[in-house]
Amino acid sequence: MEKSTDSFYHTSVLLQESVDALNIRPDGVYVDATFGGGGHSKEILDRLGADGRLIGFDQDEDAQQNALLDERFTLVQANFCELKRFLRLHGVQQVNGILADLGVSSWQFDVAERGFSFRFDGPLDMRMNRQQETDAAMLLNSYSAEQLQQMFSNYGEVRNAKTLANAIAEVRNVKPLNTIADLKNIAQQCRMGEEHKYLAQVFQAVRMEVNGELAALESLLQQSAEVLAPGGRLAVITFHSLEDRLVKNFMKHSTFNDEPEKDIYGNFSKYFRLMTKKPIEPTEKEKKENSRSRSAKLRIAEKT
Question: Would you identify the CATH topology of the domain 113-211?
Answer without folding.
Answer: DNA polymerase; domain 1 (1.10.150)
